[in-house]
């Protein structure tokens, strides 16, 4: 009986660990109690999007299994690195990778700094990811960041997902889609948030036309003056 109880505890812990990898702990606890998860408003968060440059053509030259293996290698690398930062991985959609800071746990004014450090790390890391079926090839990342308010909540009851809503999400996605290979494209809002401690090398990009937003003044995040990214 004691062995059965210990086995049951281990299985329950494994199930809880898996659930907490898919949903924030407070959300998971509410769902387990069959409680309704209320949407929550966040005044300021920073959101990061990235995707792989030329992914469509890369995927066209691979078998489906090779595509899955390539993305798995990349995201295992990313997932292990983002643990060093106060960020929350929201989801992956194909070759797109979405991370936020400032939610579900608020972290004051640290969110832009945490995402900025993480993004420099990931852009450096992607060059080290080996593609088994393309041993001489290297992936390139296109990244974008925006800071602003958003709403977070769980939608659906079958395979529930913790989702972010609001113009901040859309703008962060636009920063990514208008970025360039191995570049981190940031909005004016993120630029202002990073100015507070003067820790970053940032270069103005100038005004660009952004779909659905009109002209926006944006910047390139080049590096951090106080540390170099992990090797």
UniProtKB/TrEMBL annotation:
Query: Does GTP-binding count among this protein's keywords?
Result: yes
A Pfam family the protein falls into: Guanylate_cyc
Q: How does it sit in the membrane?
A: Single-pass type I membrane protein
Task: Give the EC number.
Answer: 4.6.1.2
Where, per UniProt, does this protein localize?
A: Membrane
According to the lineage, what is the superkingdom? Eukaryota
An example Gene Ontology biological process: intracellular signal transduction
Q: What GO CC terms are in its UniProt record?
A: plasma membrane
Q: Which UniProt keywords apply?
A: cGMP biosynthesis, Glycoprotein, GTP-binding, Lyase, Membrane, Nucleotide-binding, Receptor, Signal, Transmembrane, Transmembrane helix
Q: Do you know which InterPro entries this protein is assigned to?
A: A/G_cyclase, A/G_cyclase_CS, Cyclic_nucleotide_synthase, Nucleotide_cyclase
Q: Which GO terms describe its molecular function?
A: adenylate cyclase activity; GTP binding; guanylate cyclase activity; peptide receptor activity
Which intervals hold domain Guanylate cyclase?
Answer: 46-176
Q: Its principal location?
A: membrane
Q: What's this protein's family per the entry? A: Belongs to the adenylyl cyclase class-4/guanylyl cyclase family.
Q: What is this protein called?
A: guanylate cyclase
What is the native source organism of this protein?
Answer: Psilopogon haemacephalus
Name of the coding gene: Npr1_2
